[in-house]
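Holo prediction — 26W.
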Amino acid sequence: MTKQAFTTKTLEDALVAKLALNFSKTPEEATEQEMFKACALVLRDVMAARGVECSRQVRRNQQKQVHYLSLEFLMGRSLMKNAYNLDVLPQLKDALDHLGFKAGDIFELEPDAGLGNGGLGRLAACYLDSMTTLDIPATGYSICYELGIFKQKIVEGQQVELPDNWKDLGAAWLMPKPEEAQAVHFGGTLREFWDDGHLHIVNEDATTVLAIPCDMVVAGYDTKHVNTLRLWDARATKPVDMSLFSRGEYLKAAEEEAMAETIAKVLYPEDNHYEGKSLRLKQQYFFVSATIQSIATKHLDTYGTLKNFHEKNAIQINDTHPALVVPELMRIFIDEAGMDWDEAWDITTKSVAYTNHTVLAEALERWPQPLMQQLLPRIWQIIQEISRRWQQKVEDFYHDPAKTQQMAIIWNGEVRMANLCIAGGMAVNGVSGLHSDILRKDVFRDACGMEPWKFQNVTNGIDHRRWLSEINPGLDSLVCELTGGKDYLLKPLTLQKLDAYADDAAVLERLAKIKRENKEAFALYAKKSQGVILNPDAIFDVQVKRLHEYKRQLLNVLHIITLYQRLHDDPNAITQPHTFLFGAKAAPGYAVAKRIIRLINSLADQIEHDPVCKDKLQVVFLENYRVSLAEKLIPASEVSQQISTAGKEASGTGNMKFMMNGALTVGTLDGANVEMHDVLGDENMFLFGLRADEVARMKREGYVPQRLYSRDETLRRCLDAMRAGFRDGVSYEDLYQRLLFGSGGSPADEYLLLADYQAYCQAEKRMVATYSDTARWNAMSLRNIARSGIFAADRAVAEYADNIWHVPHR
Ligand code: 26W
């Protein structure tokens, strides 16, 4: 281990000093909020000091750096995480205790930094931890949204969105660096002139917004290495007395102020759904331009030239949202560094790599040409030239107009961002084996035919230190004891050693006891936070993730309705108490998703008020699902629902978190469930349903869900009950119609719920039967934990480092 930053005593002293310096208070006088801030500042100081040393080394050794660009970083809470990584968590707990505070209460105070929607944002946060732990010089970049993902309230069964003001306390981790501000220009006109044999292009009368970096330093585990998450805040350039301005400047200043106020205001809450909103494009360019300028400035400081940019920088873009890095790099290389097109293109295409995170057509970004042209005139010019040359290359290669159209960057008045990323990048990767295959064989088939070497796979991973060791201390102790200490924290495959205990009754009992305690702890929390009484004797059967039709929360509901009906037919049908837990935010504009939330709540209410269900069946909708709730729930979960329509979930990462905490998966062969099945086999998970190729075939051959409805009596009864609704009197005719006949332009049962319904019910049945065989269940649970090591983010990040970024790591 590296030397510890604090003993309990020195940490205590540092906290007392911080309280005095910042709040003029003694520990006795300080509020919990002030104490939280003092904790954050004390740890921040240590990390910042290490940051100075790290940057100096990176510069001195001229190391290649990784820049991870993402419009989302779903960091969650940082206090426990940083204390853990700095190896001072026990000291912090003791110090707080000595100073008269409860560590648990202080940790609970911290708001989640919810600067993301779901999987893609949380992945970025996990990778930042791994890059740091692997000693990779890396910086994350995003926007310092004033409001993160909305807070969800459930009022009369329906989702209500409230603003998430995370910065009041959350800003304690941020260090604003106004001296490193970058100016970002929008709109205006282009003036071209020749000078010195060069064509110069200047953007005149642009609206300028200042990008101010707010840096969040993050510590790695068992290393002195630290990295930075650079969050850009927006400010107007001239916050001076507007009355002094001439008319033209006055209007410009007002415009700049308006733009600055809105740009970093709020995270777009759409997940997997593209909307061509101009504010979103402004956010994207603001963030990209500030980031690229910042990288280029630092590079020039060190090397005095941009000609070796690609040798010293790898820029990873998280989905297409930062795709404008491609034309922005070109702009800087050509307009500011005076390179010619070919040289600029060569360097750009050796610097940028693109990760795709979704194959849903409605999530693909296609910006309207007029918007791009008006908002970003120079960038538009560059994209046109990139597009022209790319199209030429495609024509020369394929001589096939259909392929030219498929692969075009500008087509039909739209800029297709994925094609821009493929053209402008050195690598394109999917996030699970199946997903990468679908990209190669289907979504990007033509591009892959032309440049097959670009297409790679990096199966996602999760920060196992957070998602096992930190949130499940009971399991962590057991793992350490059985695998020989803390090795697994840096060598996650060490978890495999647990496999040897699958027949060890004593170990299995201890594992069961840990789960039981976690369930009880969660029940306590659910009571306190939401007033619901959970029965810890029940199976905790959990589906938590964004609400989306392809994730099929509705299939889960259909099965529960069926169980409920079975229970009515035969009150002894259920012997093992079963609790279904849901957590999900719906995009505010996604009406169907919101209806499904309401349906879950209607059903929960019906079951709660039906005496037949008492101690047998329960449904709970957990409000405001977020990182910090996942951290409490996952260690207490026994069943993990990963039931997306095969071919639709790029990877999933929740699936990995549950597996690592010993929950068993009921799932389809989709995303990373496939890799999970590879290591677990049929015997250690509950697989069901159509495979991706079968889904595709069924759609091709014409899928008619009404046939299943008329043929299958159980299914029909279930759907009829849903349609009629429950005791709250709300009808779900709309969802019924959508499944059987389609609605709003969507085909009937687009995601094949009815096709998989029987198989799903059977899988749940197998699961419940297995649950009654406690020893077998516990052995399966242990094997899940044992084989989850491949899903550590350290493994994924090492693959990026080796195969895409070409940077060394520990
Ligand atoms: C433009 C609107 C929009 C917003 C967000 C489109 C697409 C997104 C994300 C790409 C959605 C997302 O989070 N995708 C998830 O990424 C995870 C990390 O790779 C995967 O594990 C999930 O399967 C995938 O749904």
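READOUT: The longest helix spans residues 32-60.
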